[in-house]
Amino acid sequence: MCGVSGCYLLKENEAGVYNYLILHANQHRGQESAGICVYDGLRLVGKKGMGLVTEVFDRPDLRKLSGPVGIGHVRYSTTGASELVNAQPFKVGYSKGELALAHNGDIVNSEELRRELVSDGHAFVSETDSEVIARLLAVALTETDDMFEAFEDVMERLVGSYSLTVITSHGDLIAVRDPWGFRPLCLGWDERGFFVSSETVGLDVLGVEERRELERGEVVWIREGDVESKVVRRERKAVCMFEFVYFARPDSIIEGRCVYECRKCMGKRLAEEAPVECDLVVPVPDSGRTAALGYAESLGVPMEEGLIKNRYVGRTFIMPEQEERVRSIRVKLNPIREVIKGCSLAVVDDSIVRGNTSRQIVEMLRDAGAREVHMRIASPPVVSPCYYGIDMATKEELIAADLDVPEICEKISADSLAYLSLEGLVESIRLKKRELCVGCLTGEYPTPVPE
Ligand SMILES: O=P(O)(O)OC[C@H]1O[C@H](OP(=O)(O)OP(=O)(O)O)[C@H](O)[C@@H]1O
Ligand SMILES: NC(=O)CC[C@H](N)C(=O)O
Ligand SMILES: [Mg+2]
């Protein structure tokens, strides 16, 4: 999952700074690399680097990234290694100029499209599916100047998830959400101009009040100070349920739903489905906290912060290497012996994917003196790969792919383990099951997927 940003300023030239702020608010969506590209009035100029937004850009960089229009990206790699060549935004030339593109999502048929483009003479600079989109768009724009027409062509070819921001060397800003609406994307505006962010938190930090989410299949085209928009292609709605469970920030709004409220509801529902006699509810920071609050409230048991997160360690699930993920969990989370000693605990996390986190937490809590450790998970078991932008590409890496709940419980050495039901999850999000993508929970996907 990545984060994308964009801005179109009517009077100022601070596109670099605005994109920086939006990306910083979306940092939880990608920690591997960051990039900003701006239209400086003549051409597209940018900077990309490995690391967090604050590591990649300093003040002189932002001064150089001056111009009225710009886009940005924070990356969590799904297609292509975690290397600078694959960092975004991607700049591509075409017959009438240049464009730069930032992508959140994953294209299921990118290999096939890449082969076609290569045989047509395109020389790729990266391994990513995102460059495939940029090149397809460049080809389409050679044929037409109408951005909607160009995206009609591009969207007809692409299968998969894509929330995009694009700028051109004509100074246009374009925002696009794929026809299924897998990933979030929102547009805000005020007297300063127009702003695009993966999540609404990116608009909050700018104090932008007027806003809306893009519809699925919608292309928003901003040029010469005016906005035009069109839904150019529609498929069945398939919003990723994992955005609500884990990915998005709790203070974001997706599909009109406050993510915090959805997570709290998941916790409450989990307490109804899988209560446990315990002395304390302990949340797994960070993303398990909101569900834990709902769980504790519903059970009427006190919640205590028995695990403390080192605030300088980021998310471990989205780290690219397994070894690094495992090592970082102990560095990230530390139990408070004085709080948990002798207690029976209900430990609530949002999800178990590979099982790295739960395994280590149970051990840590027992070492710190917990009498019993009951794991409660506020989403169903992840049994199938994701093809739409979450890095769990193979069944082998998923702990629930081959093991049932009692076996997983044994593997993580918990006293008991229970997950939220699919029905409970769907009702907590308050969308219909057929409006969500639950492919990783059921193996049934909204698009064709590779064999
Ligand atoms: O079973 P696993 O493969 O370990 O993955 C699941 C864990 O990973 C995530 O936490 P993460 O540390 O990424 O981020 P967070 O701080 O937002 O909870 C998620 O919240 C679970 O705790
Ligand atoms: N997680 C994402 O959205 C990643 C975007 C793109 N597939 C990449 O790997 O760069
Ligand atoms: Mg977590």
Automatic annotation (TrEMBL):
<keyword id="KW-0479">Metal-binding</keyword>
<feature type="binding site">
    <location>
        <position position="349"/>
    </location>
    <ligand>
        <name>Mg(2+)</name>
    </ligand>
</feature>
<dbReference type="InterPro" id="IPR029057">
    <property type="entry name" value="PRTase-like"/>
</dbReference>
<dbReference type="InterPro" id="IPR000836">
    <property type="entry name" value="PRTase_dom"/>
</dbReference>
<feature type="binding site">
    <location>
        <position position="240"/>
    </location>
    <ligand>
        <name>[4Fe-4S] cluster</name>
    </ligand>
</feature>
<feature type="binding site">
    <location>
        <position position="350"/>
    </location>
    <ligand>
        <name>Mg(2+)</name>
    </ligand>
</feature>
<dbReference type="GO" id="GO:0004044">
    <property type="term" value="F:amidophosphoribosyltransferase activity"/>
</dbReference>
<dbReference type="GO" id="GO:0051539">
    <property type="term" value="F:4 iron, 4 sulfur cluster binding"/>
</dbReference>
<feature type="binding site">
    <location>
        <position position="386"/>
    </location>
    <ligand>
        <name>[4Fe-4S] cluster</name>
    </ligand>
</feature>
<comment type="pathway">
    <text>Purine metabolism; IMP biosynthesis via de novo pathway; N(1)-(5-phospho-D-ribosyl)glycinamide from 5-phospho-alpha-D-ribose 1-diphosphate: step 1/2.</text>
</comment>
<feature type="binding site">
    <location>
        <position position="437"/>
    </location>
    <ligand>
        <name>[4Fe-4S] cluster</name>
    </ligand>
</feature>
<comment type="similarity">
    <text>In the C-terminal section; belongs to the purine/pyrimidine phosphoribosyltransferase family.</text>
</comment>
<dbReference type="Pfam" id="PF13522">
    <property type="entry name" value="GATase_6"/>
</dbReference>
<feature type="domain" description="Glutamine amidotransferase type-2">
    <location>
        <begin position="2"/>
        <end position="225"/>
    </location>
</feature>
<keyword id="KW-0315">Glutamine amidotransferase</keyword>
<dbReference type="InterPro" id="IPR005854">
    <property type="entry name" value="PurF"/>
</dbReference>
<dbReference type="GO" id="GO:0000287">
    <property type="term" value="F:magnesium ion binding"/>
</dbReference>
<dbReference type="GO" id="GO:0006189">
    <property type="term" value="P:'de novo' IMP biosynthetic process"/>
</dbReference>
<dbReference type="InterPro" id="IPR017932">
    <property type="entry name" value="GATase_2_dom"/>
</dbReference>
<keyword id="KW-0408">Iron</keyword>
<keyword id="KW-0328">Glycosyltransferase</keyword>
<keyword id="KW-0004">4Fe-4S</keyword>
<comment type="function">
    <text>Catalyzes the formation of phosphoribosylamine from phosphoribosylpyrophosphate (PRPP) and glutamine.</text>
</comment>
<dbReference type="GO" id="GO:0009113">
    <property type="term" value="P:purine nucleobase biosynthetic process"/>
</dbReference>
<dbReference type="InterPro" id="IPR029055">
    <property type="entry name" value="Ntn_hydrolases_N"/>
</dbReference>
<feature type="binding site">
    <location>
        <position position="440"/>
    </location>
    <ligand>
        <name>[4Fe-4S] cluster</name>
    </ligand>
</feature>
<keyword id="KW-0658">Purine biosynthesis</keyword>
<feature type="active site" description="Nucleophile">
    <location>
        <position position="2"/>
    </location>
</feature>
<keyword id="KW-0460">Magnesium</keyword>
<keyword id="KW-0411">Iron-sulfur</keyword>
<protein>
    <recommendedName>
        <fullName>Amidophosphoribosyltransferase</fullName>
        <ecNumber>2.4.2.14</ecNumber>
    </recommendedName>
</protein>
<dbReference type="InterPro" id="IPR035584">
    <property type="entry name" value="PurF_N"/>
</dbReference>
<keyword id="KW-0808">Transferase</keyword>
<feature type="binding site">
    <location>
        <position position="287"/>
    </location>
    <ligand>
        <name>Mg(2+)</name>
    </ligand>
</feature>
